[in-house]
Amino acid sequence: MQVLVNDTPVTVPAQMHISGLIAQLELSDNGIAVAVNHEVINRQRWDDYPLQANDTITFFSVVAGG
Amino acid sequence: MLNNSEYMRYSRQLLVDGMDDDKQAALGKATVVIVGLGGLGCASALYLAGAGVGCLRLVDDDQVTLSNLPRQPLYTEQDVGLNKVDVACASLSQRNSTIRTEPCVTRFSKANGKALISGSSVVLDCSDNMSTRHHINAACYTAGVPLIVAAASGVDGQLVMLHPAHEHGCYQCLYAPHQGPANNCLEQGVLGPVVGMLGIMQALSALLWLLKMGEPQWGKLRVFNALSSSWQGFNIPPLPDCSVCGGN
Ligand SMILES: [Zn+2]
User: Fold this and answer.
1) Interface ipTM > 0.90
2) Looking at the predicted structure, is the pLDDT value of residue B247 above 60?
3) Which residues line ion ligand 1, judged by CB < 5 Å?
């Protein structure tokens, strides 16, 4: 199935979870956060949050500086 | 009731559509807690003092260093080595002597959080590290005080408005306690105007909330990127088992 990752179409297997997507994209999970369809998905849900075809996925940085 | 000098001082603000004397007077009775007097705290404190927020409680245990000066406009070269909150309170009083400032030379913690936010109308998280941010979130949820969080790093900024009485996730629903920023030296860098902009956004959000103007974006994370000059918005759903907000 196809999903949109930071505005770029990406093909992923069906029944993919966020953790699987991070592995497929070879992203470091250090300092990143993710939203699916404009809703933040907490890190503790990454292993079992199922992606759907045509989901809009946005990776962004965790920012804590001030 | 406003006196003549207050009418003069706040005349431009009083002319804004939706503003009136009562709202200005209410602002004068509000207490805003600012945790962290770095780039975010300096920017937000300047504008909240200018607007006439009656009491600003400033919390930070740091001293001014030379590397603070590019983006922390409350301090000058003469202040290097002094406590930030002492300098900040003096600097703000020179700009608006009609408001009260409360310097708290301490680090916000689990132990002192409740006392530091007591009696406040809203808290601004202007801190610079994850553990303090989680302490502030927990204290605000326990006390039921609204919280406006900002953060900046590199060319990125983030703004979050949280209201304990509203049905949305809290800061811990946004970021897990162990989920830190990327652990590298790039994280330490920041462009002054980015952090200044986010601090001013915090001041603006606090002001609009205190003046009951507009619809606050409770439960939303807003993400700014300076290179594309763009904002993105994300909802923060409550985690059912969150130890802070309990999923509301
Ligand atoms: Zn929560």
Assistant:
1) yes
2) no
3) B 170, 172-173, 242, 244-245
